[in-house]
């Protein structure tokens, strides 16, 4: 639900000064439909939760590769001194 409001806020109110539902058709075409945004957000949240719970995807070999790359990334972050914030690292070189 929150995602829909975020999308609405981004598209509508600031540009139009009135309810996004009454937006001119062109603006509505350009905007991504809130439902897809919501679906995407839910999928990401689920994936994050699963990873936190320790479930992993892929074959053993793949998991080994993934784990290795994660370790490498973590090591480089420690070197740079960045905080591990999100998938894109907390620094200029993630």
UniProtKB/TrEMBL annotation:
Residue ranges annotated as compositionally biased, kind Basic residues, are 67-80
Report residue spans for region: Disordered. 16-94
Compositionally biased, Low complexity: which spans? 16-25, 33-51, 81-94
Protein name, per record: Uncharacterized protein
User: Species name for this entry?
Assistant: Sorangium cellulosum So0157-2
């Amino acid at each position: 639900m929150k995602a829909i409001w975020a999308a609405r806020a981004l598209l509508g109110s600031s540009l139009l000064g009135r309810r996004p539902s009454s937006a001119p058709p062109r603006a509505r075409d350009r905007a991504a439909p809130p439902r897809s945004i919501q679906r995407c957000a839910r999928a990401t949240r689920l994936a994050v939760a699963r990873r936190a719970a320790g479930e992993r995807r892929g074959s053993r070999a793949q998991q080994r590769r993934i784990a290795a790359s994660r370790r490498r990334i973590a090591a480089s972050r420690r070197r740079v001194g960045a905080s591990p914030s999100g998938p894109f690292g907390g620094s200029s070189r993630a």
